[in-house]
Design a protein that fits this description.
binds CO-5-methoxybenzimidazolylcobamide, globular, 5 strands, single chain, alpha/beta
Length: 213
């Protein structure tokens, strides 16, 4: 991997948003694409943060500071991501974190990657009851409903969303996708999802696959 991407990933552990933003700008100036910077630099870095936390090498305040670096870098990248890949058709994705769950760092990354791939993304936020996903999907004429859950205790809201979606009259086939750290493919497919993805980059591949794009 390019040295600048290594530096970028590592910068999330320096807890200095301005240093991360500076490196993003440097990578852009060196000709790297926004998608590449997001995937190889920022998401790669956030994955490392997750592993360090899991191993007890860092604590929550550090995770928050890394997330702050990520958010500031995303603000710079977002407008550029939109222009990079226009080949994703006229697909609208409604995405949110399910009821009882306020984790949104991963969901925000997924939303950003999907936007970057040219999809229209409507982010309904966190702690969203199943019915709110359906309401938003109708309101925005969504083609995809994406549910994120980070807690094993909130995973059961996902099949509720899938169940309500099957009952709803959207006037078209709406695909349901699940994701989040405790979620896995077999469980997703057995519980009403049309697809599962384990990270933000593969969420893009998944949605493209579901619509033959
Ligand atoms: Co919480 N938390 N947390 N937490 N937290 C976890 C998830 C936990 C694993 C920590 C632990 O105990 N080791 C644990 C869950 C255990 C379990 O149920 N399996 C846990 C717990 C227990 C809790 C509380 C209950 C703690 C308490 O209060 N006792 C509480 C619950 C609050 C609530 O939601 N009601 C809680 C609270 C919090 C904070 C608020 C402090 C904070 C969240 C801040 C925020 O999100 N704004 C927080 C954090 C930061 C974490 C950890 C440390 C990091 C999560 C994260 O952001 N990871 C986490 C431990 C860990 O993961 N190591 C932990 C980085 C992010 C990029 O990865 O979210 O996995 P991730 O997203 C990935 C993929 O999962 C996937 O793509 C993303 C990008 O690649 N993905 C999708 C996610 N959504 C997707 C949707 C898709 C497709 C892919 O399609 C729709």
């Amino acid at each position: 991997m390019a040295e600048i991407m290594e530096e970028l990933a590592g910068s999330l552990l320096e807890y200095d948003p301005s240093a991360t933003v500076k490196l993003v700008q440097q990578a852009l100036d060196e000709g790297y694409g926004a998608n590449e910077i997001l995937k190889d630099g920022l998401i790669n870095g956030m994955d490392r943060v997750g592993v360090l936390f899991k191993n007890g090498d860092i604590y929550l305040p550090e995770v928050f500071m890394s997330a702050e670096c990520l958010q500031e870098a995303l603000a710079l990248l977002k407008p550029l991501l939109k222009g990079e890949d226009g080949g994703s058709g006229n697909i609208t994705v409604v995405i949110g974190t399910v009821e009882g769950d306020i984790h949104d760092i991963g969901k925000n990354l997924v939303a950003t990657m999907l936007e970057g791939a040219g999809f229209k993304v409507v982010d309904i936020g966190v702690n969203m009851p199943a019915a709110e996903f359906i309401k938003a999907a109708k309101e925005h004429k969504a083609d995809v409903i994406g549910c994120s859950a980070l807690l094993t205790t909130t995973m059961p809201v996902m099949p509720e969303v899938a169940y309500l979606a099957k009952q709803a009259d959207f006037g078209k086939d709406v695909k349901i996708i699940f994701g989040g750290a405790p979620v896995f493919e077999k469980w997703s497919l057995e519980n009403g999802a049309d697809g599962y993805s384990e990270d933000a980059a593969s969420a893009v591949t998944l949605v493209k696959r579901l619509f033959n794009l």
